Write the structure tokens for this entry.
Amino acid sequence: MKRRLVSFLLCVALLFTGIMATGCADLEEDEDPTETGEEENDGLTRSGMTLTLWVPTQEGTTEESLELVEEAINKITQAEFDTAIKLYGIPTADYEDAVKKQVEDINTRVEEAEKKAQERRKAEREAAKRGETLPPEEEDDDDTIKNPYDLIVDSGAGYPHVEENQMDIFLIRGYDNYRYYTDNFYVQSLNEEINGTSKILKSYIYPSFFEAAEVDGTIYGVPNNHALGEYTYLLVNKDLATKYGYTQKDLMTAVNCSQFVEDVAANEAGVTPVWGNITPSYMQYWSGRGAKSFSVLASRVTASQNIDEVKVENVFNITDFVDNTYLQKLFTEKGYISTADSVDNFGIALVKATPAEIEAKYADSCYVNIHQSPEGTLEDYCSAVFAVSTFTESTARSMEIITLLNTSEEIRTVLQYGVEGQHWKQDELDNSVIVQLSDEYNMNIMDTGNVYMTYPDYGAAMDWSSEKTQNLDSFYPVTYYMTDFVHESNSELVANFDKFCIEIENQIAAMDAETFKSSVSSLRSMVEDNEYYQKIAYMPSSSDVQKGRTEENGWLPDNSIAYQWAERVKFILENG
């Protein structure tokens, strides 16, 4: 409701300042575009339009270079879409504050204009009751609030100037900032465009990016495609495995490798049995402390699981957690584990690396198994998102430009590296790479669109195959879809539950390997008997009254994380 109101307020403000409100004067479906001197293209009302594009710049970027880049971008967008672009290049240290101030200032002016309009209408009604007519309003003096970042160049011939209350495309950096703009209704819904005229984006951007950008089922920005997360690999020394009679199939997990590690430790002097820590894989913890902080209520969430296959359960029922925790303790006590930055030779290793690094260093000497696929986080997915402001001239036209930045090598390279012949050129001996000609235009590759549509760097060929493989293997844990399970009515319960989890975590840390192994059953029971856990994991049943589990006694389904998850799964399955 508020979003529609803001859009309406914008139109009113523009009208009251004598501005031609292109964004509010779109043709009705039954109007003839030829009657307005406009042409229709791809289902959009087509006329000369000027849009703004806000991006952060790196140190050393000059206004002269920004002017050249803007001109180069306009050669593309004006020919393609009859759209002129005003490029706002803001120094990166100032960028967040500048964008927020621009949005908030526009919002304030729009709200003030609407308040003034309402007061005028009220005064006119009162005057009419008295049989009077108010004199026309005097035009305000030209005290327009000027943007601190002036337009770099004048609008192109035949294109309208940027209006005072106009803001179109801008980059949002980080998930917290993304939620600031969505929660304050400062950005437009893009569902219609992403499912319609800009659906080609789905062929260039991995689906999980759009999933992470959803807020209550609505996508408000297009994340810049990039390599996500990191792999954890389990590497096994091929020569030693063969020597002791093991095949790759025998050594697919750290637990499967336990006897092999013992063989190496007993017989191979100078070889590190285990390089790196053995940790449980794909663990998600439920508490008020975050999904990566230990909790006795947990889920193991892999990339291949369907949402209805995810269990929310006692952590001591999760075999992967129990077995790997025990193995880490055992091998640490025996002195088998090294966490040095590098080792000359090892039996097994658990390392974080990219596919390219593994291929280059270990493909010939090791069996390579994935211990955990790259896991995306909201912050990672939304580290750089192009959004369309609520105060745009046109959402559809803005999305055309965002789509270009994600699908067109030409415009993508211009925004990232500048103008060919001025800032860079192709290498004379290898035209698959580019050479820097000027240091007066500098951008972060993450901030200028789909990274896979341009060169990784000067002197580097446009080969993103390793990163694309990483994206294909990456996943967004389905449990991240529920971020609001701690709320006012259960916050005290969750806080007490978190304290209990910390107590159990400290107990585990104090145990040696054999004590932990023999204590798993008692730890499981200790958790099951804890009232905080019972209420956090509570699922309503027909025996609740018999057990004294009533709302009066604090047994509230909506306070239970397990119940909330079950309801969320049910909703997603029923609504697609």
Summary: The two ends are 24 Å apart (CA to CA). Residues 231-280+318-373 form one domain. The chain has three domains: 47-93+162-228+376-481, 231-280+318-373, 482-575. The chain is about 40% helix and 15% strand.
